[in-house]
Amino acid sequence: MGHYSSSPAAAIGVLAALLAGVVVWGPGDPINPSTAGQPAAPCPTPVTALTPIPVSSSLPSDRCGPPDLSPDEKLYAVNRFAWESFIALNWPTNHVPLPCNQSTETTETSRPVTFGMPGDCGPVEWLSYKPIVDVFRDGGADPGLWESIPELPSQCVTSAAIRPTWASIALRDALVLRSFSKISPDFDGLNGVSQANGALLVDQKHRYVRYDSRMNKEAFDFVATRHLYEANQQLNYATQHLIDQPLGTILVKAAWRELQDPADWNRYKTSLFLLSNPVTGECTPPTVMGLVGLHVVRKTGLMWQMMWATFEHVDNAPEIGEQTNSSQKFSFFDTACDGCVLNSEPPSKTPVPSPEPVQVSRQQTIPKVIRDLNTAAQLAIIQHAPESVWQNYQLVNVSWPSNGMKLSGTPTLVAPVTLTPFDFVSAEGKKTNNVTLETYVQSKDCLDCHRKAAIALSQPTPYAADFTFMFSKAKPATTPTATPMPASPP
Known about the structure:
The chain has 7 helices and 10 strands. 14% of the residues lie in helices and 12% in strands. Strands 1, 2, 3, 4, 5, 6, 7, 8, 9 and 10 form a 10-stranded mixed beta sheet that branches. The radius of gyration is 22 Å and the shape is globular. α2 (71-89) packs parallel to α6 (368-384). By secondary structure, the protein is α+β, with helices and mostly antiparallel strands. It has one domain.
């Protein structure tokens, strides 16, 4: 494991008394219905970084209350809320595991799936959300109903058919990573092989990291009912109404690396993806991928400008200046390479054969209050499911509005948005970013960039897009549409 979580099991004796009151729910519990808009639950007593974390499929609606907590208590409460959200969003949605071994033609039915079961490639809650690339489609096309299943890219149809059990995966799409950039106009969205500045990331196995971005039903309904998936209709809406996503909105952005060695499957959340390459037109058969980074963004009643939390696998990379040895195995750092340049972008922003690995290190330490919370959460997970892969993940930091006011319904807000009124804070005032999603821009915080998010047709007026760049991915309709815009938000 990485620096902060080298042996969660070894720490059980230290914090066993603190964790005596850990609340756990049984494996396979269904995700509870959304409780968006309900008051925050009372905080546990005392509210500290070491207060036990519940391991539950129940998605909390907001940080614990009351609203008038002290600054330190608010910090603890929000960080706990991030961990509780991470656990619930990663709860398995299948009753039985889906083996990652592609030679297995039937799912294992001898035992129920558990939280973080090693070798399970089955879906978790957030993987049932809509991929953003399937909402903002070519030609401003209607994305259809939430329940609709998008067509596979043509080059992936044969690949999907290679494994008969693929059809049994109950997801909105067949888990396709199809494109190559988060922001580059040459590729389509954070559903490919590039991150925040358009650069690529290569692990120590010479494999490109892949990315995925999704929205929950609340966010999808907001876009679909207002026709915001089409650029001109989006502009018309923005001239009349503030783009303000609803309470309960959840957005996730994930980074995945290819796991060629089955021995690694027991340390990562694994999923099967078809890897589509729009440059070559190729598509792989179902490939085992391991989760290495996850942004979780949530809009709540107490955090209207959203909570911005980021998590990583503990094996990703060390911090700058951290002492390492040859026995440590990082996914993005070679301990034997003393002369490697740190966090240096690959020369090409499009994939090439046999790329050179990027030597990655974290530019700032994880705050102590977060490290303490990580220890408590990891131990709670071990108590719930001793073999769970989720004990190998850590919260890096959270940015959140301590004055999370709801804005008035005016369309005059333009990007970049001034953040001062919302008083965004984070642990130790450190930047919230992820070494797998913002490798080359670690001097910036999430909001340093997201305050600039605007609608697709942003000239001459860059109407603000509620801190998310997904609206900028809307494209104009190929043919004019007669669909009327609502006079007011439905």
